[in-house]
């Protein structure tokens, strides 16, 4: 097992998300969690409401504990097999909406995740991927 997600990596990813959102004219919230889904960093731009903050947190949590992007988790949650046990009944923190991506080491270990909220799910997802990619080189 590698070292846990450092504050520097978490803060760098969250800051990259806010900057990417601003560059596109969006006010977003970025939450980075450790592998267990515990919040490590939360950065919220001016004007982001509680809904944006909470969805960002839950997207990060969902991606960290499932180990997959929340867009992929959303497709799985919508499948007929999952209708007998919807994810929110299993864990109320799970949010099957695009905008969360795992932070993974070079050898495939999930060490955390970033979730973005405040814009639409496609925009949140694009910004989350950008933010995660911005720290990929230092995750090693």
Automatic annotation (TrEMBL):
InterPro entries listed in its UniProt record: GlcG_carb_metab_protein, PduO/GlcC-like, PduO/GlcC-like_sf
Pfam families for the chain: HbpS-like
Protein's name in the database: Heme-binding protein
């Amino acid at each position: 097992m590698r070292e846990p997600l450092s504050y520097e990596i978490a803060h760098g990813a969250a800051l990259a998300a806010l900057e990417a959102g601003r560059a596109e004219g969006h006010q977003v919230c970025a939450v980075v969690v450790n592998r267990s889904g515990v919040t490590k960093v939360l950065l919220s731009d001016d004007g982001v409401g509680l809904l944006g903050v909470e969805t960002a947190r839950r997207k990060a949590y969902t991606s960290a504990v499932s180990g997959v992007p929340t867009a992929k988790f959303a497709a799985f949650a919508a499948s007929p097999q999952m209708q007998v046990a919807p994810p929110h009944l299993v864990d109320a923190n799970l949010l099957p909406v695009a905008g969360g991506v795992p932070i993974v080491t070079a050898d495939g270990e999930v060490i955390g995740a970033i979730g973005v909220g405040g814009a639409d799910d496609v925009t949140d997802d694009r910004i989350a991927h950008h933010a995660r990619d911005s720290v990929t080189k230092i995750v090693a």
